[in-house]
Specification:
Chain A: Its main location: membrane. The complex is a heterodimer of chains A (about 300) and B (about 375). Helix content of chain A is about 35%, strand content about 30%. Chain A has about 300 residues and is of the alpha/beta class. Chain A has 2 domains: about 220 residues, Rossmann fold; about 70 residues, 2-Layer Sandwich (Alpha-Beta Plaits). Chain B has about 375 residues and is mainly alpha-helical. In chain B, helix 3 links the parallel strand 1 and strand 2. Classes of the chains: A alpha/beta (about 300), B mainly alpha (about 375).
């Protein structure tokens, strides 16, 4: 079931076309992730969907609802955690949640939300004394207070340490268990790969590609990168380099001291051949690995840009 | 059907009231927890008022008195009559209570133990009364006053000697426009109340700049929260804070410094509401074009300083150079302070023309700045879309 449909969105600011043509639809209960470099139009797209900015062109439908006619109904149906975690710093998490609860006629109980975002312990501390991760969890809590069907999380883990980031992942996975739909933007490929049902890559105001993370990776290429390093130093690596270049499935190699990188379209066969070679020459292998392709490679392949966290 | 409809409507009102209540409580907590608000809203005006009152109205009740010595070289009927009359003047305090020798008197003058020495005529025919003052103090207030009083006294004696009774005499009476006297304590107290409420409005809206900078305004707009109710609760909080200021400053003024207040509650409420709203509008206007809190505070400080000294808060406008007075005449604080004086000291009814003129000036300031602020906010809302 489609809960949000976006078609041919366009938005310009002056002469700058921030969003040129963006279309996608989001299914109920999925985690839908939008990634893209800075200035790709992610935030503008989100702000149009959240009703803060009106699009120059295009359609935004929440089921039967659209912003022109059903603004209040949509606001009750969605929960937003904006990039700047905006809340009242001199109030406590509990007071912030109670205040936001008063905006809705059927809000969830504050205790329940505090439990979900694990802030029960800190409910009576002023927000300004909370850590970055706690603040971010409260921001998510504020988005959840109205018990929304669709939740927007705009870079919820940016700037957090690994532990705090993992806490937020747990919350997102918990929301998924509850059957909520989450629309996520992130700077971390690992996060997108781990959490998302589908990933939408945007660049320069256009949707570049949209699919499940594994399908996107498969689309890339069959070629894999094999890394090997030798106990017997450069001599062994040099010989192995010469040997692998003659193999049919190998397209390119790269050697740095005793470490060797081999790109092969049939990595299993290549490995077998390589081990046969090392055994014959009795070279000791220190490390061997096949690098998994990640979303990062997908991103680089589709946008032609380096990914920077 | 009809019942259902009614219930739904009631629910809406309840939600709105609940929203107002929660927002008001939030604002109240935010204000109570903000140390800056306490300092600038409560502590600062109290300290400022106490300092000014201690400096300028410490001994305002004491009358002018000057100490003199009297020399009566050879007592005669004329000199004795003068002596008894001079001794009877309340402004003169005769040192040692009786005439002394001329040498002694001159010594006192030299050592500045007395402000002047009066030497009475030696015979009934001799008509000169000498006044001896210290050269260093010749232009001093006391010497001038003694000479003036003595001059008048001598003139009267002359008239008496000529057998004429004075046709004209001068009587002093101070006149105020109201029924009650205004002394400096009352003047300063009402001025300080006006200033602190005005500053509350002009500085207080810095919250809006901060909320916008942090994206809180945007965040609230993503919820079904009614921004009108938000503004209303904010205003209610500010008015409550101003009432605390009025009560606190009045209590200190009356209990510690003996200010006399004769309050016309109705006029006071009208002036208070219009003044407070108008200065809040001014703050709103500042917030509409200030990108940072620093920029806002800069603008608010300049305006607040200008008004503090040009609006008759500490000193009456009439004591300022004439070329400055037209500036005072357009500043809203001038009329707010005046209005508070009228309603808190003179017990003036609302119907006086000058009061209405003042209200009109404040309303114009409030309305114009509010409209300008709204226009700028709308324009920025579009620009801030990026």
């Amino acid at each position: 079931m489609t809960v949000l449909e976006v078609r041919n969105l366009q938005k310009s600011f002056g002469s700058i076309k921030a969003v040129k043509d963006i279309s996608f639809s989001v299914h109920a209960g999925e985690v839908f992730t939008i990634i893209g470099p800075n200035g790709a139009g992610k935030t503008t797209t989100l702000e149009m969907i959240e009703g803060l900015v009106s699009p120059d062109n295009g359609v935004i439908h929440f089921g039967d609802l659209d912003w022109n006619k059903h603004a209040v109904s949509i606001k009750k149906k969605i929960g937003v955690q904006p990039q700047s975690s905006a809340m009242f710093d001199l109030l406590t998490p509990e007071e912030n949640l109670n205040l936001f609860a008063s905006f809705y006629d059927d809000a969830r109980p504050t205790e329940e939300i505090l439990e979900i975002v694990s802030l029960t312990e800190h409910r009576k501390n002023h927000v300004k004394k909370l850590s970055g991760g706690q603040r971010q969890r409260l921001a998510i809590g504020l988005a959840l207070i109205s018990d929304p069907q669709i939740i927007f999380l705009d870079e919820p883990t940016t700037g957090l340490d690994p532990q705090a980031r993992r806490n937020i992942w747990d919350i997102i996975l918990h929301l998924k268990e509850l059957g909520k739909t989450t629309i996520l933007t992130t700077h971390y490929m690992e996060e997108a790969e781990k959490l998302s049902d589908r990933v939408c890559i945007v660049d320069q105001g256009n949707v570049i590609t949209l699919d499940t993370p594994s399908a996107l990776i498969e689309k890339l290429t069959d070629e894999r990168e094999i890394r090997m390093s030798f106990l017997d130093g450069e001599k062994a690596a040099e010989d192995a380099d010469r040997f692998s270049k003659e193999l049919e499935s190998v397209s390119k190699t790269e050697r740095e001291g005793a470490a060797l990188k081999i790109w092969a379209s049939k990595p299993e066969e290549t490995l077998l051949d390589l081990f046969k070679f090392t055994k014959e020459n009795s070279y000791g292998v220190e490390q061997v690995s096949i690098r998994e392709m990640s979303l990062e490679d997908v991103f680089i392949a589709f946008t032609g840009k380096e990914w920077r966290d | 059907m009809c019942l259902l409809h009614l219930r739904a409507k009631n629910g809406g009102i309840n939600i709105k009231f609940n929203q107002f209540k929660m927002m008001f409580l939030a604002q109240l907590k935010l204000t109570l927890r903000e140390k800056q608000a306490w300092f600038w809203g409560i502590f600062f005006p109290v300290i400022l008022m106490v300092i000014f009152m201690v400096i300028f109205s410490g001994n305002s009740d004491e009358e002018f008195k000057t100490e003199v010595a009297i020399v009566d070289p050879s007592p005669n009927p004329a000199s004795e009559m003068m002596l008894s009359q001079i001794s009877g003047l309340p402004v003169f305090e005769v040192k040692s209570g009786k005439p002394v020798t001329r040498d002694k008197a001159e010594e006192w003058v030299k050592e500045q133990e007395v402000d002047a020495a009066i030497i009475l005529p030696e015979t009934a025919e001799e008509s000169s009364v000498f006044l001896v003052v210290n050269k260093e103090n010749e232009q001093g207030a006391a010497a001038q006053a003694v000479s003036g009083i003595l001059d008048k006294f001598v003139q009267q004696a002359n008239l008496l000697a000529a057998g004429a009774s004075p046709k004209y005499d001068l009587q002093y009476e101070s006149i105020t426009s109201g029924t009650n006297e205004l002394d400096y304590t009352d003047f300063l107290l009402t001025g300080m109340i006006a200033l602190s409420i005005a500053q509350g409005g002009m500085f207080g809206m810095v919250d809006l700049v901060e909320m916008r900078r942090k994206g809180l305004i945007k965040r609230l707009r993503m919820t079904p929260a009614n921004m009108g109710i938000f503004g209303l609760s904010d205003m209610a909080m500010r008015l409550l804070f101003s009432i605390v200021q009025i009560v606190l400053l009045s209590l200190i003024g009356v209990l510690v410094f003996g200010a006399n207040l004769y309050i016309n509650p109705f006029t006071l409420i009208i002036i208070f509401l219009i003044g407070a709203l108008s200065f809040n509008a001014l703050g709103y206007f500042f917030s509409s074009f200030s990108k940072t809190t620093e920029a806002y505070m800069g603008v608010a400080n300049i305006c607040s300083f200008l008004m503090m000294f040009l609006s008759g808060v500490f000193f009456p406008i009439e004591t300022m150079p004439e070329w400055i007075q037209p500036i005072s005449a357009v500043l809203p604080l001038t009329y707010f302070a005046d209005g508070l004086r009228e309603s808190m000291v003179y017990e003036a009814g609302i119907a006086t023309a000058s009061l209405w003129a003042g209200i009109a000036v404040m309303v114009i300031w409030g309305a114009v700045t509010f409209l300008l602020g709204s226009v700028l906010y709308k324009r920025k809302a579009i620009a801030a879309d990026r």
